[in-house]
Amino acid sequence: MTTTLAGFALGFSLILAIGAQNAFVLRQGLLKSHVFAVCLTCALSDAILIAAGVAGFGALTQAVPGLELAMRLFGAAFLIWYGARTFQSAWRGGQAMQAGEAAGSLRKALLTCLALTWLNPHVYLDTVVLLGAVAAQYEDRLNFALGAMTASFVFFFALGYGARLLAPLFAKPRAWQVLDVVIGIVMWAIAVKLLLM
Fold first, then answer.
1. Domain boundaries, the chain
2. How many CB atoms lie within 10 A of CB 91?
3. Among the listed residues 41, 51, 68, the one whose alpha carbon sits nearest the alpha carbon of residue 132
4. Which of the chain's termini has less CB crowding within 10 Å, N or C?
């Protein structure tokens, strides 16, 4: 039980910081658009990456020297592009000013979610390398992994559905513009950090 709690605590702390993926989940939650599918996609993606890390996949990133650089450059390029889109949305005032308004098709939401998840090198560093390395210190690695996976499910569904509590604030068009600017800044900041690593 303590091993499961240790996995939960570490997993939760790693995904707690606002990043590109979390900002997207928050926005989808505020829009009440494909929330379940987006949260499930994020949580299942994390579960796959955690399982890979605990199973020893983290060694691959160390064994293939150019892999980390390629992941960083590709991830930075995607974040710069997506950040530019959110700045453009903030400038225009965005089409989705009402909290209940749809944010596009399910396919588009899931593709964006998958890109923000799988093209982000920090996801691999956190879930595969770091969690994998910490899990190796425990005899009961399975329960450690289950704890970390549970943390992902709890976090993403709490973020996606908890965002609705902020809906009255985001009934104002200016709040959406501010959120888009903040999301754009976060994405560009992460992109710069990736390029300077």
1. 2-196
2. 12
3. 51
4. N
Give 28's contacts (C-beta < 8 A, 6+ positions apart). 34, 35, 38, 103, 109, 160, 163
- The answer to whether residues 160 and 38 touch, using CB atoms and an 8 Å cutoff, is yes
Tell me the C-alpha distance between 7 and 10, whole Å: 5
| pLDDT at position 175 over 90 | no
Q: Report the pLDDT value the prediction gives residue 95, as an integer from 0 to 100.
A: 45
**HEC sequence for 81-121:** HHHHHHHHHHHHCCCCCCCCCCCCCHHHHHHHHHHHHHCCH
pLDDT (tens digit per residue) in 10-40: 777 777 665 778 888 988 998 888 999 999 9
Q: What is the pLDDT of residues 71-95, one digit of tens each?
A: 667 767 877 887 888 888 888 875 4
Q: Kindly report the pTM of this predicted structure.
A: 0.70
Neighbours of 12 (CB within 10 A): 16
Phi, psi values for residue 140, rounded to 5°: -95, 70
User: Residues 110, 35: contact at Cβ < 8 Å?
Assistant: no
